Amino acid sequence: MTDCASPKGQVATAHERRIAREMAVRWNADVIMTGKGLDDDVSIVDALFSRHGTLTAVAEIKWRGESLALDTLRHLQSYLITHRKLQRGRVVARLLHVPLILIVGLTDCTVWWLIADEDGRWCEHPEVRRTWTQKNINGGTALRWNAYVSLAQMHVERK
């Protein structure tokens, strides 16, 4: 069973799908979710956004609505995400020639960043450090390369 197939994972996946739909409405776009929720999910990106039948972006989507508010995120001064997720998303963005967007649902709003352009070049250069973090939504710990995304270019969408 993958992390997203666990009970906690299924809740997070449902919220991420809702966040994607809400952002699609804000951006006047359509959204297609990738294989999240399947027992063998190995999706590199979470969503594909399109407009009038043309792909416009790929996205990594996270839900932190149980634990993280905008004020707390601002106090932390960056958003932590596994660096590998951004690296792999950049590859997909380059191959499809669309930007990579990181979208995070918080307790009081949704925030997003343009991470890479259509050529896979960083738009947001995160600080990368090898640190101990929570392994997955179900707990545990893991030592891995993590990206600390600056809040300087963060966009805030109020609910």
Instruction: Please report the distance between the alpha carbons of the first and last residues.
Output: 33 Å
Gyration radius, in Å = 15 Å
SSE order in H/E notation?
HEEEHEHEEEEE
What kind of oligomer do you see?
single chain
Quickly give the structural class.
Answer: alpha+beta
Q: Going across the major beta sheet, what is the strand order?
A: 1-2-3-5-6-9
Largest sheet: number of strands, sense, barrel closure: 6 strands, mixed
Helix content: 25-40%
Tally the beta strands.
Answer: 9
Q: Segments where pLDDT lies below 50 for 5+ residues? A: none
Describe the global form: globular
Arithmetic mean of pLDDT: 91
Fraction in beta strands:
35-45%
SS summary, helix count: 3
Question: Can you walk me through this structure?
Answer:
- With 159 residues, the chain is an alpha+beta fold.
- It has three helices and nine strands.
- Strands 1-2-3-5-6-9 form a six-stranded mixed sheet. A three-stranded antiparallel sheet has the order 4-8-7.
- A hairpin with a 3-residue loop joins strand 5 and strand 6.
- The longest helix has 20 residues.
- The radius of gyration is 15 Å and the shape is globular.
- The mean pLDDT is 91.
Summarize this entry quickly.
With 159 residues, this protein is α+β, with helices and mostly antiparallel strands. The chain has 3 helices and 9 strands, in the order H-E-E-E-H-E-H-E-E-E-E-E.
Please outline the helices and strands:
Layout: H1 7-26, E1 30-33, E2 47-51, E3 54-63, H2 70-76, E4 78-82, H3 83-96, E5 100-105, E6 109-116, E7 127-136, E8 139-150, E9 155-158
Parallel strand pairs: 3-5
Antiparallel strand pairs: 1-2, 2-3, 4-8, 5-6, 6-9, 7-8
